Amino acid sequence: MTVNVRTAAVRADGLSRRYGATRALDEVDLTLDRGITGLLGPNGAGKTTLLSILATVNEPDAGRVSVFGLDPRNAGERVEIRRHLGYLPQELGYHRHFTVAGFLDYVAILKEITDRRRRAEEVARVLAAVSLERRARTRIRALSGGLRQRLGIAQALLGQPDLLILDEPTAGLDPEQRLRFRELLSELPGDPVIVLSTHQADDIAAICPTVVVLLQGRVRFGGTPSELTATAAGRVWAAAERDARAHLSWRGGDNRWRHIGDHPPPGAELVTPTVEDGYLLLSHAAGAR
Amino acid sequence: MTSSTPGPTGPVAGADWHASADVLAGYATGTADAAVVWSVEAHLTSCGRCRSALSEHADAERLARNRRVLLVRAALPEGGRVRGLLCRCGVPDHLLRLLAATPSLRKSWLLSVAGVLAVVAGEAAAVRYGRIPAHRPAGLSAYQDTVVLAPFLLVAPLLVLAGVAAAFLPMFDPASQLAVAAPFSGVTLLLVRAVSALAAALVVVVAAAVVVPGPGWLPVALLLPSLALCAFALAAATLMEPHAAAVTAGALWALPVLLLAAAHLPLLIVQRNAQLACAAVFCASALVLLLRRDRFDMGWTR
Hints:
Radius of gyration of chain B: 31 Å
Oligomer: heterodimer
Number of strands of chain B: 0
Mean pLDDT of chain A: 89
Number of domains of chain B: 2
Helix content of chain A: 25-40%
Structural class of chain A: alpha/beta
Strand content of chain A: 25-35%
């Protein structure tokens, strides 16, 4: 399934990738424009593999990628793509003896910001963006998981990239930090292409004009969050009792059972679906859960 | 009394003039000429009223940004004497900062190398000077002078190799994915780290070779084998997995050293023919490295 947007800033055609007997990606076609695209999928759906391929870190077994019209198979064009790239891997390792500022300075050099003054300005800018200014001298080994995640986001912002690839950026962030992160992405100058993967459907609903659902290595949905939500219209119910016929059901905060399925439970009331409901229905249909 | 410009001889502490709003605005935005800047700065040191007036002209956002930059610069490590010396020799500052991520340049690593060498060199010295009795076969007069060196000859180049391997193996760089996704040249990063690790380890090895009870030429004789081993490991890493390349290089050194030690001729490993072989290995490895350097640009490499 192809996500159609106006202009193709990033384009993937027929991407496939195997790890031994496991097929991580299965002929994925994707077209992304400037703005934020949310990548939704369960663990093992292929999100990290897809993002690492777009970030030129990993290579597909088959298929092609084009980023701003550049082909990463060509060494020169690959370097050019990297000059426009900010990447937060899912499991970013840190040199634990580095200070926060020292780590960002190191990554800034890797991003070819060699002038000391400009590097310091960039480091100061991204530290302010993630509210880590007061931790500039702190060693990374002394940071909590949430602070490290903010540091990871900060390094991805160095150099004001045109393509920002964030693999589960909100993992480890508390609710307030997640809201701050949404604000941060919304305020980024230059209208970059942002792709972020997450398990949090509410993050997608809050900040992503486009959502892609990846299940079992294949794109199962591409569209707006409201379109994803609409796929669950008329299939989400609230009732006092559990219904075994439902695809999924759980007890909500109001002590009533929320059912997702094709048959209304006895005495059930039709409720307004959410992005998460649409996603869960897709997952169920794909047999991924 | 307010003057639009400072007096001809410049302001004097306690003078009865004050800088005008235009002058302060020019000073704050950096558009005033040098003479005015000098006069205003001298005047500000003694005039609280003008200092207060100046704050109204300052760009608060710019000041905050400059403050953040200064804090960042203050938070960055200075790097010590060696880095200062290398900077004065013309090595770019940003290349030296990249070395901070090289584990084999850390004090703990170098102290460990020195410790291992101290043990093997100390053992050789103790045997050589009779503090530890050696089991020596009868009739081998030269045995005492050479076989005691076998542990040192085995370990010294391997420690240099380990230092270089730690500088290029991804397993020693927790942020290696960032290095891959960055535009900075992979081969430049590799060479900067490897050469620095090589140089640091060689200093320790040569120092140990000077004190070990061997021939006087031993410190120099260890240079080429160490260099050849490291070059071979780097070249092999373009053909196989990096850790396999490092292990292969180590085995290629350890096997002949052990065989020669078993034959009571360990010093042959650093004598003329071995030096020629090492030179050949080094040249061949350098050529492979040159031709296949793109393999260190990881990511899309097929």
